[in-house]
Amino acid sequence: MAEQAARGAEVDVDVVVVGAGPAGLSAATAIVEAGMTVAVLEARDRVGGRTWTEHVDGAMLELGGQWISPHQTVLLETIERLGLETFQRYRDGESVYVLPDGEARRYTGDFPIEPATVAELDRLIGVVDALAAEVDPEAPWSHPRARELDTVQFDAWLREQTDDAAAAHLAALFIGPAMLTKPSHAFSVLQALLMAASADGFSNLVDEDEILDRRVVGGMQQVSTRMAEALGDAVHLGAPVRRIERSDDAVTVVADGVVARGRRVIVAVPPNLITRIDVQPPLPRRQHQLHQHLSLGLVIKVHAVYDRPFWRDAGLSGTGFGPDELVHELYDNSNHDDPRGTLVGFVSDEHADEAFRWSDEERRRRILESIGRYLGPEALEPVVYYESDWGSEEWTRGAYAASYDLGGLHRYGADQRQSVGPIHWACSDFAGHGYQHVDGAIRSGRAAAAEAVAALAA
């Protein structure tokens, strides 16, 4: 792997890949397996994209994507092929639910709230599941009611389905702040159904034992690291792409320190970064419109490490939910065979907006106080504290994936993976199955590689 592209280096290959996250590296791997040559150009000084396993003050933290679900079969197959091992998230003991007044209630099974609200939440989950079953995650815009479903806010639609405001609020939480990291009034019913269908149902998204089932021993970034190691010097780090010059059957990709020429290019970066690349001739009008209707959400991923997982001593799993809390969800994120205890919590969308108005010290204090309402005063004194803010990360600028504004998905979704001459697209943001997860990134990368190989073979 080239740690830094040499100034003025030039390479000639069959396919150039822009981005060394799971999507780009999966695409590059498939290109090589097809017997063709590849160059991967990555802006960062590391591979992995939105997966990043880092040591902070002596603690190993998963700063980005980390979890694996049973339905993410392509990711599971990739992990096995790469020789990696997995372990289950710790979940023994009771969970904690924090009510709007700050009262913490221990529970197992259903949320410890009004039984009528629990029943209504279950009914709403069933309603969304039934609709999601009608949606093809690879082409949600093809649903016969796509325009209707895409021009109604998810929040407003949920409130139309029930008179129980608390049930509607909870149902919205699972897709809005928890997944798209946006307020549920900021996206459509169709966008929510894509999120649900991409995970084989809304029921999977609301079941933390499904969607947050297990992790990779040593960290998720190893999926990218091992693919990159196999590609060797084909991977160029510290090489942000500035310009793509295209003709019908050739590309010249100009990056800092390296120029790569090929017959096809796969752009495998978040869609909000595509517009930072000067493409000549310019992309078609619909591509420009598409990018104007896509945006990433906002979330602070909070890591708090303790000398031991003290919550387990009290019979707690470390799992917590609080729809009105600053930290709206909390999990035991302790590493495999590590005696220390690690918690991970999330401050999302409008709560994150507010949190960034505070000083670093005040934000830390308020976040730890929120965690303390779940687990008690010991939570206030971690030995390591860190906030992952992907919105300020230069080559991401948001989390977890891009979603459309109201009405955008049915108008432009069919264009998002449409190749433009020799340019193909790959990223978890454009995935159907596995949308916004590593599983979807790998699927997307392989699909783009298959398109490029087929075009070159034609």
Query: Order of strands across the widest beta sheet?
Result: 8-7-18-19-20-17-21
Number of separate strands? 23
Q: Give me the oligomer status.
A: single chain
The number of helical elements comes to: 17
Q: Kindly state the mean pLDDT as a whole number?
A: 96
Distance between the termini: 31 Å
Family: Belongs to the flavin monoamine oxidase family.
Domain Amine oxidase: 23-451
Pfam family, one: Amino_oxidase
Protein name: NAD(P)/FAD-dependent oxidoreductase
In short:
The chain is of the alpha/beta class. It has helices at residues 22-33, 73-81, 115-132, 146-150, 154-161, 165-180, 189-198, 202-206, 208-211, 221-231, 271-274, 285-292, 310-313, 349-355, 360-375, 408-412, 438-457; strands at 9-12, 15-18, 38-41, 53-56, 59-62, 86-88, 94-98, 104-107, 214-216, 235-236, 241-246, 251-255, 258-262, 264-267, 278-280, 294-297, 299-306, 316-321, 329-332, 341-348, 384-389, 399-404, 423-425.
Structure description:
The chain has 458 residues and is α/β, with parallel strands linked by helices. Among the domains are: 9-49 and 220-283 and 420-457, FAD/NAD(P)-binding domain; 114-207, Orthogonal Bundle (Guanine Nucleotide Dissociation Inhibitor, domain 1), CATH 1.10.405. It is 35% helix and 23% strand. The protein is built from 17 helices and 23 strands. It has helices spanning 22-33, 73-81, 115-132, 146-150, 154-161, 165-180, 189-198, 202-206, 208-211, 221-231, 271-274, 285-292, 310-313, 349-355, 360-375, 408-412, 438-457, and strands spanning 9-12, 15-18, 38-41, 53-56, 59-62, 86-88, 94-98, 104-107, 214-216, 235-236, 241-246, 251-255, 258-262, 264-267, 278-280, 294-297, 299-306, 316-321, 329-332, 341-348, 384-389, 399-404, 423-425. The strands form 6 sheets. The protein has a 7-stranded mixed β-sheet with strand order 8-7-18-19-20-17-21. A 5-stranded mixed β-sheet has the order 1-13-12-11-15, with no helix packed on it. A 5-stranded parallel β-sheet has the order 10-3-2-14-23, covered by helices on one side. Helix 1 packs parallel to helix 10 and helix 3 crosses helix 7. The longest helix has 20 residues, at 438-457. It is globular. The two termini are 31 Å apart. The mean pLDDT is 96.
